[in-house]
From TrEMBL, chain A:
Keyword entries, A-Z: Signal
Domain Leucine-binding protein: 27-385
Protein name stated in the entry: Leucine-binding protein domain-containing protein
Signal sequence segment: 1-21
Tree of life domain: Bacteria
UniProt source species: Roseovarius aestuarii
Family: Belongs to the leucine-binding protein family.
Cited Gene3D superfamilies: 3.40.50.2300
Database matches in InterPro entries: Leu-bd, Peripla_BP_I
From TrEMBL, chain B:
Topology in the lipid bilayer: Multi-pass membrane protein
Record protein name field: High-affinity branched-chain amino acid transport system permease protein LivH
Organism this protein belongs to: Roseovarius aestuarii
Gene designation per UniProt: livH_8
Keyword flag Transport: yes
Gene Ontology process terms (BP): amino acid transport
Length: 426, 328
């Protein structure tokens, strides 16, 4: 009798298994370790958005979202382990938030047929969907970012920067080196002089680089940094009295964490932005009601509206919209990773859609296609207001110089295809 | 003076200052190794923990606030007061002494006379524990540390050197303070180790645990004392580095900067830590200045470790370290 009851109970559990049909979204988080202060808001933003969709809408078209979170500590090996241990749960898309992990996962996701979204990081030439079929890096990439920075410098100089000196302070890693080629090509086009200043990991000691900047007096300094490198660079810039409005960081060097340690001295520092800032959007009212006030927030709720929280939320929003697109394409709400890939490849983000979501003007408009997995390359510039304690967008979203960026993407992706025996095509 | 020589002089001076900051971290390692033969892997995390505690006390932050709020559904984060820097430093030191006592009572008193590798492994565990504990206790957000230390260019040096060389040198006020503090610290530690009863007892313990016990030296007292002093050195290092970059979890990585300093100066010499720090600081900065541009830059870490490796080959005990002779 006991055996029969146990069997019946087991059968009931198996039969009741709607959890099996849940839509699994991965959050490869780093809530611990040296980069935890950045990893926590990134993860919270993603998890809170998924929670909101479940609590407010009952999931995506009736399918609940299951968040599969795995702690990587921002360690590439652990990130790969997380991927291997969670992919069996039917994860629809991975967002590792680490360029190192992205590079390691590209061949794996390609072999496994699972999409990888690297929003504003990872391998830039993955924009070419004819070669990188499972990798997406919309709405913009590092090379777009390099172009956005130079476009901004052109704007503030009336369109002529010939003879100007631009220095790049960068993390001495694959990530930090990404913009160099683009900046060199743009230097040929606009006639500025580029100097390169690598900083060793982790970047706590940058005296040599900033002494060199003080000696050579560049007109502008660009920064591709991460973690403690950003805070030290901004402090050193303040120490040598480099004008903050001429110091521009990539979007990974533009969070509150990066500027607060320098206090008022960081006022005026600029950073590129992939999406809008703050929490003054209708969606955040729902977030407060259904997630934070309901005690279901991933964190303490004190990071809502910060730059990196918004980035995490934006990533999750784009994943959910891609899932909806996949459901429309395939006529089912029970989508697979392969269907999700199709949804990502057909994703259209326009102002009408963002307004309907309660996020008007939150990000640039873009369309994804088989040829273009990276969006239209739009980005903006934000500036730190130390008195208000917030970054504010100071430009509209502008498109990167496609005349320079696109040939570089074609060249690099073609080299990757040749190296890996990939037949390019849609 | 030729322009490049003027620049090199500025780089040299900044190298000295950077070296002092490296030496501050290395000092903590030396103290514990000298007294107990333990290579304390947790020294960098101790600097982080001390700095986190200092900022937490100064800001009136409620320890374990997230944990308390999660369990009891409360919304408490701050006591609502601000503690002056000096008082906060004293309170932090009390906590570091308590930590030293706990570490000794729970871990090292049970490992007396064990192999050095066992003790080393215990400090690895301690490092992981302390990092997680600090996170739970104070949160992992980046905190601004301001105990009133001056920061930014020293105008007097800038103007004076400008009048002499027609180029003003950049020397950070914070680096000058760090140099003065490190000098005072080394003098105090050398006097303590050489001329006080406790200092001599510490050296006796370092030579042989069992022999020291047999002549009536309290191993527990000495180890708690040494870990407390190392905690104080960690606090000083945490203040200096935390003022530069904000207090954050990557502060524990400053230990990476101390390793080549220790290999160069020797694991058992307090002056060696300072000299090693200065040699590494000046060497890496001048190498980056002269050779860096020819090889693409970012040579500093490489230079420091290569120099340390060369020392390992030709003088494994470092410049001032004691030559270890194992009798078989």
């Amino acid at each position: 009798m006991k055996y029969k009851l146990a069997t019946a109970a087991l059968a009931a559990v198996v039969a009741a298994g709607p959890a099996m049909a849940d839509l699994a979204f991965s959050v490869l988080s780093y809530r611990t370790g040296p980069y935890a202060s950045n990893g926590i808001p990134l993860a919270d933003g993603q998890v809170d958005y998924y929670t909101l969709i479940n609590e407010r809408d009952g999931g995506i078209n009736g399918q609940k979202i299951k968040v599969v979170e795995c702690e990587t500590g921002y360690n590439t090996e652990k990130g790969v382990e997380c991927y291997e241990s969670t992919k069996g749960e039917g994860v629809l898309v991975y967002n590792p938030y680490s360029t190192g992990m992205a590079y390691q996962l590209i061949p794996k996701v390609t072999a496994d047929g699972i999409p990888l979204h690297t929003l504003g990081y990872g391998r830039t030439s993955a924009k070419n969907g004819k070669v990188f079929r499972n990798v997406f890096n919309y709405p913009a990439n590092y090379w777009d970012g390099a172009s956005h920075a130079i476009s901004h410098i052109l704007d503030v100089n009336g369109g002529d920067i010939s003879g100007k000196k631009v220095a790049l302070v960068y993390h001495n890693s694959a990530y930090g080196k990404e913009p160099i080629r683009t900046l060199e090509e743009l230097a040929k086009k606009h006639g500025y002089e580029l100097s390169l200043l690598p900083v060793d990991h982790p970047g706590q000691e940058q005296k040599s680089q900033w002494l060199q900047i003080r000696r050579e007096k560049p007109d502008y300094v660009l920064m591709w940094g991460w973690g403690v490198m950003n805070q030290v660079a901004i402090q050193e810039a303040a120490n040598i009295r480099f004008p903050m409005e001429n110091f521009i960081g990539i979007w990974w060097s533009g969070s509150e964490n990066d500027v607060k340690p320098a206090g008022d001295a960081a006022n005026g520092y600029k950073a590129l932005a992939l999406h809008n800032l703050g929490s003054d959007y209708p969606l955040y009212d729902d977030l407060q009601k259904y997630v934070v006030d309901a005690g279901k927030a991933s964190g303490a709720g004190d990071g809502v509206g910060s730059v990196l929280y918004n980035r995490g939320l934006y990533t999750a929003m784009l994943s959910v919209e891609a899932a909806k697109t996949a459901m429309e394409i395939h006529g089912t709400s029970e989508i697979t990773p392969a269907m999700m890939r199709d949804g990502m490849e057909a994703l259209v983000m326009n102002e009408e859609k963002m307004t309907a979501l309660g996020l008007p003007n939150f990000g640039p408009e873009f369309e994804v296609s088989c040829e273009n997995h990276g969006g239209n390359g739009y980005g903006a510039v934000s500036q730190w207001d130390a008195a208000a304690g917030e970054f504010k967008l100071v430009t509209e979203y502008v498109q990167s110089d496609q005349e320079v960026v696109q040939p570089l993407i074609d060249e690099d992706s073609a080299a990757f295809a040749a190296e890996n025996g990939i037949e390019s095509g849609c | 003076m030729p322009e490049q020589l003027v620049f090199a002089t500025e780089v040299f001076l900044n190298g000295l200052m950077a070296g002092v900051l490296y030496a501050l971290v290395a000092l903590g390692f030396v103290l514990i190794f000298k007294a107990s033969g333990i290579f304390n892997y947790a020294q960098g995390v101790m600097a982080l923990f001390a700095a986190l505690t200092l900022v937490g006390i100064m800001e009136g932050q409620v320890p374990f606030a997230h944990l308390i709020n999660a369990i009891f559904g409360t919304e408490i984060h701050h006591f609502g007061w601000h503690v002056p820097g000096l008082v906060a430093i004293i309170l932090t030191m009390v906590i570091m002494v308590a930590l030293a006592w706990i570490v000794n009572t729970l871990i090292f008193r049970h490992l007396v006379n064990q192999e050095p590798i066992i003790l080393f492994m215990a400090t690895i565990g301690l490092a992981y524990f302390l990092e997680g504990f600090g996170d739970i206790m104070w949160g992992s957000d980046i905190k601004k540390l301001d105990v009133g230390l001056p920061q930014g260019i020293n105008l007097w040096i800038d103007e004076t050197t400008f009048n002499i060389f027609d180029y003003g040198f950049f020397i950070d006020n914070l680096d000058i303070v760090a140099t003065v503090v490190a000098a005072l610290l080394v003098v105090a530690l050398v006097i303590f180790a050489q001329y006080t009863k406790q200092g001599r007892a510490m050296r006796a313990v370092a030579d042989d645990h069992q022999a020291a016990l047999s002549v009536g030296i309290s191993l527990n007292f000495i180890w708690v004392m040494v870990w407390s002093v190392a905690g104080f050195v960690a606090l000083v290092a945490g203040i200096m580095w935390g003022t530069k970059s904000g207090v954050q979890f990557s502060l524990s990585l400053i230990a990476l900067k101390a390793l080549p300093v220790l290999m160069l100066g020797g694991f058992t010499s307090i002056p060696g830590a300072i000299v090693g720090g200065l040699v590494i600081g000046v060497g890496e900065k001048l190498f980056e200045f002269a050779i860096g541009p020819l090889v693409g830059g970012a040579t500093e870490n490489w230079f420091a470790y290569v120099l340390a490796l060369i020392f390992l080959v030709f003088r494994p005990q470092g410049l001032f370290g004691e030559k270890i002779i194992e009798r078989v």
